[in-house]
């Protein structure tokens, strides 16, 4: 049976249930595909959520997209602090489907290109074959993230760079790790302060980010940690960790200048492993200084792709002017 796809509003009757049913059988698992995450982000930002579902005799794949209009351009893509597009699929296409241009990748690409002026999909690392998107006229750009295995915390820390390992052991007694949902405000403040020090604009405004983190902190999807100065009892580092099964994601984070974040990572390695977490995703290795900091923990480098579809030559020129370096 031929695969077909349609685009819906998440609020349409039955669409939320179809997405949840697809998620239950999906082989693509990230916390960013969960409806509580997506709807919390929608409420915090005021963005409409569209749902594209590919179907044979039943739904076999789909994506959740945030819409935005920029001048004449109707754009769909992820919103800040969401490194991977919410995607679900009961299976990935096999080679013959891709080569015959009959895969759900092709159908998704064609359906989205017909509806939007511009679409960005940040494909989760489980999707490594982007040829179907390229053959449909999309651009593919590689990105990277770092991942740590937590199955043996002591061995993992022993494999850190000498400077990171020395900092952790020498400075650990200066701090204490505190877990609690009430620390979400401290985490957001530390995160926003970090962007300000770097002269960068955060992906979400403080109010939006605070709303998002506090909403998700009330669920079991997020664990909030702060590293507090043992003498002054003030937060020196903070991380909101997203949980999906046995995987944890370094989601919203920030620290004061100094050793606090290195100590925080060491404490998290122990704490998360003790709770049954097996993998810690650093969520990005695409900014040189940040990637270098994360590299010191000896993680595995994992590639993923952004695929971008732009409908017309005029819109491609408009996009190039907005994003001259492909950002």
Beta fraction of the residues? Answer: 25-35%
Outline: globular
Helix/sheet category: alpha+beta
The residue ranges in which pLDDT falls below 50 over 5 or more consecutive positions are none
Element order, helices and strands?
Answer: EHHEEEEHHEHEHHEHHEEEHEHEH
Oligomer: single chain
Q: How many DSSP helices?
A: 12
**Helix share, percent:** 25-40%
Largest sheet: number of strands, sense, barrel closure: 13 strands, mixed
Helices and strands in order:
Blueprint: E1 4-9, H1 15-25, H2 35-45, E2 49-55, E3 59-70, E4 73-77, E5 87-89, H3 95-99, H4 104-115, E6 118-123, H5 131-135, E7 139-149, H6 153-158, H7 162-171, E8 175-179, H8 184-197, H9 206-217, E9 222-229, E10 235-244, E11 247-255, H10 260-274, E12 279-281, H11 288-295, E13 300-310, H12 313-322
Parallel strand pairs: 4-6, 11-12
Antiparallel strand pairs: 1-2, 2-3, 3-4, 3-5, 6-13, 7-12, 7-13, 8-9, 9-10, 10-11
Helix pairs in contact: 2-9, 7-10, 8-9
């Amino acid at each position: 049976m031929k695969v077909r796809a349609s685009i819906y509003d998440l609020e349409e009757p039955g669409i939320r249930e179809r997405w949840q049913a697809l998620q239950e059988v999906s082989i693509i698992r990230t916390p960013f595909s969960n409806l509580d995450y997506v709807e919390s982000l929608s409420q915090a930002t005021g963005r409409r959520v569209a749902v594209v579902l590919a179907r044979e005799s039943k739904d076999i794949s789909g994506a959740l997209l945030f819409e935005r209009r920029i001048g004449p351009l109707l754009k769909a893509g992820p919103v800040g602090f969401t490194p991977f597009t919410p995607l679900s699929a009961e299976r990935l296409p096999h080679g013959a489907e891709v080569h015959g241009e009959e895969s759900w990748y092709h159908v998704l690409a064609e359906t989205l290109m017909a509806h939007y002026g511009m679409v960005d999909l940040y494909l989760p690392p489980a999707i490594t074959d982007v040829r179907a998107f390229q053959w449909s006229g999309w651009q593919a750009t590689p990105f990277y993230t770092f991942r740590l295995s937590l199955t043996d915390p002591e061995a993992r820390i022993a494999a850190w760079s000498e400077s990171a390992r020395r900092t952790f052991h020498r400075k650990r007694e200066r701090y204490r790790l505190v877990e609690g949902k009430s620390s979400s405000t401290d985490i957001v403040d530390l995160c926003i302060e970090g962007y300000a020090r770097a002269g960068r604009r955060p992906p979400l405004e403080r109010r939006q980010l605070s709303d998002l983190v506090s909403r998700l902190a009330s669920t079991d999807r997020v664990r909030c940690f702060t590293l507090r100065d043992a003498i002054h009892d003030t937060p020196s580092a903070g991380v909101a960790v997203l949980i999906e099964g046995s995987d944890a994601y370094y989601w919203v984070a920030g620290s004061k200048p100094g050793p606090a974040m290195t100590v925080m990572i060491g404490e998290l390695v122990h704490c998360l492993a003790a709770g049954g977490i097996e993998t810690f995703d650093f969520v990005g290795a695409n900014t040189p200084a940040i990637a270098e900091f994360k590299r010191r923990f000896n993680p595995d480098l994992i590639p993923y792709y952004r695929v971008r579809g732009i409908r017309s030559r005029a819109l491609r020129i408009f996009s190039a002017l907005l994003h001259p370096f492909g950002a």
